[in-house]
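Bench log, entry 3. Co-assembly request; chain sequences pasted below exactly as received.
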Amino acid sequence: MSAETGQIFKDAAPDLKFRAKWYTRRVLIYGTLLFWTVICLFPIYWTATTSFKIAPDVMQGHLIPWADFEPAWRGWRSLGLSPQTIFETSTVREEFLKRFTNSVITSLAASALAVVLGSMAAYGLSRFTYRLKFIKNRDISFFFLSQLILPPVVLALPFLVLYKELALLDSHIGLILLYTLMVLPIVIWIMRDQFSAIPVELEEAALVDGLSVWKAFLQIVLPIALPGMIAAFILSLVLCWNEYFFAALLTSTDAKTIPVMVASQTGSQGINWWSMAALSFAAILPLVIIGIVLERFIIKGMAAGAVK
Amino acid sequence: MAEVTIRQLRKSFGSVEVIRGVDIDIPDGEFVVLVGPSGCGKSTLLRMIAGLEDVTAGTIRIGERVVNNLPPAERDIAMVFQNYALYPHKTVAANLAFSLKVRKTDRAVVKERVEQAAETLGLTPYLHRYPRQLSGGQRQRVAMGRAIVRDPQVFLFDEPLSNLDAKLRIQMRTEIKELYQRLGTTTVFVTHDQIEAMTMADKIVVMEDGLVEQVGTPLELFDRPRNVFVATFIGSPAMNLIHGTVRRDGAPHVEANGHRLPVRPDREAPDGHSVIYGVRPEHLDLAEDGGGFPARVAVVEPTGSETLVFLRFGETEVVALFRDRHFFKPGETVHLRPRTDQTHLFDAATGVRL
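Structure output for the full assembly:
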């Protein structure tokens, strides 16, 4: 046995060609993905950078900090959220926090309510056969979804009158109820697919194993449908969080939400883009965090519904 | 363990009656197979025993109790489903333990029973896996394990083998029978496969169209089918049926296609009665001497251990099964002689055994 070491086998010409092909494909695929990522993330980047610009930078379309404009805290200062102002009292910051809280309360409550109600409706639609003369399960599902066909503008005046009469204008409850109604069709649609994908024998097995109908639902069906429920919840949350039209219409001082505040960043010299950008960025930040943390649930939930 | 008694049971879905007055007695510790073509109501009947379907009329008794209105949980039964119905979010061990935990069984007892069931079913290495990580046969074993840990009054099986491939199915039906022989629990097993029914059952219930056609041991059903339906359903290849007329001049026989088919002399059928003559493929012998009836060979299927021959007797198709090897040519005419004491007669109008 000789103690010689070193490479014996070498890549032949076809091996090298194969590797070249493999690398080219990788580069192309990742290049495309990277390009798409840039397109998707650019608006967020723009919003974030704009919050550090002053008026001329915004107008001249400067994009890269330090290279073509000098970052300033102007936008954040106007919100009372810059390093210099964060420990001082700021009425704008207080208002921001109040609007932020309003958004949190209304979207969380509306989404939770929609997921609870929507899941029950969806479970009923997937497990029982309803017949009201010619109306069957499929028609009921469509009725729910058909709410989305109507443009919200059409409902603006009726809601305004209705809410005025019910004294729900500018109240959390009013907005929560409206948002629940708004996202309910989507929740029902997602959850119906979720429940339909769960074989009914699982519940029957649970019944035979000794559970009651409700316990079988809670212990067997719910855990399996949970990823879908979380996906539906997050989707509702995003829709409620970003809703502007009805919030602008039905709230004024007390229940006003973040999107309304963002839109109202106009000063005497026109729109204060920097403070609007800072506000927008602060507004989307929670969603970004939720998206990153719960992304796997969203994918799982959507996929489960899609495959079956 | 307990006996199951079913009296005048009926089930309707809307205006459709799927179970139309069924009476079955299942003694304590018996293995009963419900068999019939799809849509005959056998699965519905099983689900009614389990409590998963309401009873429209009649009674179901498990042991001393009428269980018509008891929820499944209180019937003390265990059921194995066709698609296994394992809880996908629980491990094998948790699946097995679930029903015991629901009943608040002592933890040490749960552990012992789960381990014992896992050992019996060869699942010990898989206890920490999830159902999705198991093969079809392993999943089916978990489903059975979930049933046996409970030690219930009655086991209910709903076509448990039909999702498995042919080879595994044969292996598992032997294993299920052995399991039953060890446990001795009253078992109701639903299948559409008559071979499964014949090989596993103490007693077979043949159903068709919501009614019980015949109840009996496998060999009773095979030897004395009560009507044409049972005669053709039990046994493979199916019994040959030949239309003919009873003749009592000389030795009693059936005249069909101008030939004489021998019948047992004790058959009570008057001269001139229109009948269906039944004889199983394996009860046809080759008549080298030119006796019996002539038939033209259509197709020959040699399987090695036996030879299956499809023939035409006039317009009637006839199948013969020989244990020894024959090399017939298609188109060739052979003579077949039915074994007289293995023949059956059915009324042509009602299909009932004579």
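The longest helix of chain A spans residues 13-50. Residues 265 and 276 of chain A are 6 Å apart (CA to CA).
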